[in-house]
Amino acid sequence: MDLSFENDTSRKARFKRELRNPSLLTVVLIVLAVLVVVLGPFVPGWVNTTQHSFDAIARTKERNESSMKSIGVIVPAQIAPWMSSKVDTMIAAEGPLDWQVVSFRSGPCKPENLSQLPESKYSTSIATACNEIDDIQQLYSGSCFLASDCNVPEQAKEELELAIGKVWDAFSDAGFVLSYEQIEMVAP
After folding, report:
1. Where are the alpha helices (DSSP H) in 42-110?
2. C-alpha span between 127 and 136 (Å, rounded)
């Protein structure tokens, strides 16, 4: 009778050999088995939380998409105050996020959206202002590239005020008026 493990090919003998001198594969399998046993009870909770989070994100996205109004639904009178607030943010920019507050190439300024406005001096003025403000935004973006060094040049501020001034002129020519709250918020 031989007492060495090398000659014994039974399962019990091979198992003893693996435990005494485990291979890398055996170590990895043991670690994975321990992880499955230890973390197994928590997995259903994680999956449930993840599923609820994805559902919440989907509901939020659906709610946001349903509440977004097309440019045809938005009253044209709301575009000028919106543009004015964005231009004011750009004029008082303290960082790149303020300067690039919105893209004047997309959103309400997208040509497909602007084409939905009724043909008038006001819609032409809005389209022209979108292009001018976008050009100004791109031209002077280097002046406000770093948050620590964001200095909007006076020339840019003047050009922005001139562009939005044309919109306000067309706004008043179209017979629109600011709401009572917005009139009070404008500094004299």
Report:
1. 43-67, 79-91, 96-99
2. 14
